[in-house]
Amino acid sequence: AQSVTQLGSHVSVSEGALVLLRCNYSSSVPPYLFWYVQYPNQGLQLLLKYTSAATLVKGINGFEAEFKKSETSFHLTKPSAHMSDAAEYFCAVSDPGSARQLTFGSGTQLTVLP
Amino acid sequence: DAGITQSPRYKITETGRQVTLMCHQTWSHSYMFWYRQDLGHGLRLIYYSAAADITDKGEVPDGYVVSRSKTENFPLTLESATRSQTSVYFCASSQGAGDIDTQYFGPGTRLTVL
C-alpha cells in the first residue's frame, strides 16, 4: 500500500525566510504527487501537482516542489515566507490506475513568525 | 458558481443515532469522495464514487454507508454513530477527465458524537 511521510508535524519560520516542508513517499512506481494547503476552518486547496512533465513544479502563492525519484521525495519550498502562508500543508499521492484515490500524509503545521 | 458544499457544517449527536452528512457539487464532476480528518492522521478515504450508482470502499469504510443516486449528491450516513466517529468530514469531487485530475474539497462538517 502506498504511504506518505511528512517529516515535522510543526515547522516555524521567520517572515522572509525560506520555507521547506518535507514529503517522502513509498512506491515502486512513480506516483502522482500533490501538495494541498488548509487554512483554519476551511477545506483543502490544491497548491501544486506533479504530472511527470517536469521534475520542478510551480504552484500558486510562490510555492514550488521538486520530484526526486532517487530520494522518493517531493519537498515543498518557498523562497520567502509571508504571514499569510501560515496554514497546514498536506502532501498526497495517488498511484496510477488507483481510481484517483489519494493517500495523505499526516500534515505539517506551518507557523510564520514576525 | 457554488462549487462544492457540505451540510451541516457542525453537528452534535449521541452514540447510537443515525446521522447523514450531505455533499453537493455543481460542476457535474464524475468522481466524488468522502474523507475524515483526525489529528495526526491527515485525511483518510472513507468511500468514493466514480459515477452515479457506482461506489467503492476506501481505507476506513466500517460504520459508514454511502449512496449516489444523482451525479451532484453524495450523502454519507453513519448508521449508528460511535464516539470514534467524532471527526471532521470532507467531501471532494474531481472531473474524472484523466488519471491526475484535481480533487476539489468542500468546507467540511465537524461531527461530535457524545
Description of the structure:
Chain A has 114 residues and is an all-beta fold. Chain A has strands spanning 3-5, 10-14, 19-21, 24-26, 32-38, 44-50, 56-58, 64-68, 73-78, 87-94, 103-104, 108-113. In chain A, the strands form three sheets. In chain A, strands 2, 5, 6, 10, 11 and 12 form a six-stranded mixed β-sheet that branches. Chain A has a four-stranded antiparallel β-sheet with strand order 3-9-8-7, with no helix packed on it. The mean pLDDT of chain A is 90. With 114 residues, chain B is mainly beta. Helix content of chain B is 0%, strand content 51%. Chain B is built from no helices and eleven strands. Chain B has strands at residues 4-7, 10-13, 19-25, 31-38, 42-51, 54-57, 64-66, 76-78, 87-94, 104-105, 109-113. In chain B, strands 2, 4, 5, 6, 9, 10 and 11 form a seven-stranded mixed β-sheet that branches. Chain B has a four-stranded antiparallel β-sheet with strand order 1-3-8-7, with no helix packed on it. Chain B is globular. In chain B, 36% of the residues are buried. The mean pLDDT of chain B is 93. Chain A binds chain B through residues 4, 6, 9, 32, 34, 36, 41-46, 49, 51, 90, 92, 94, 96-97, 99-107, and chain B through 4, 31, 33, 35, 40-45, 48, 50, 56, 58-59, 90, 92, 94, 96, 99-108.
